[in-house]
Design goal:
By secondary structure, the protein is of the alpha/beta class. It has one domain: NAD(P)-binding Rossmann-like Domain (Rossmann fold, 3-Layer(aba) Sandwich). It is 15% helix and 21% strand. Strands 2-1-5 form a 3-stranded parallel beta sheet, with helices on one face. A two-stranded antiparallel ribbon has the order 3-4. A hairpin with a 2-residue loop joins strand 3 (50-51) and strand 4. The chain is globular.
Length: 86
């Protein structure tokens, strides 16, 4: 098993943002895409083809590279119940 360190969380080489939206520039994905310096950002949403200059992927399984960090922007009402804290 690979040992993970806190620095891996703070300095990932690639990030997938699940639930990214294209309708607004205020989303976390848009900021990540603008700030990414050398790292890969993979927005994931099955309902969006592309936005803010990046291709969107329909699922994590469709992302072409290794993902070091996954961030969820999925709204609570559509998150599976077993993953919610309610």
């Amino acid at each position: 098993m690979k040992k993970y360190e806190f620095k891996d969380l703070l300095n990932p080489k690639s990030v997938a943002v699940v639930g990214s939206q294209a309708g607004t520039c205020s989303t976390f994905s848009a900021y990540l895409c603008r700030l990414a310096s050398g790292g890969a950002v993979y927005p994931v949403n099955p309902n969006v083809k592309a936005a803010f200059g990046h291709k969107f992927y329909p699922s994590l399984l469709d992302v072409p590279g290794k993902v070091d960090l996954v961030i969820s922007e999925v709204p609570a009402p559509v998150t599976p119940k077993q993953w919610r804290n309610t």
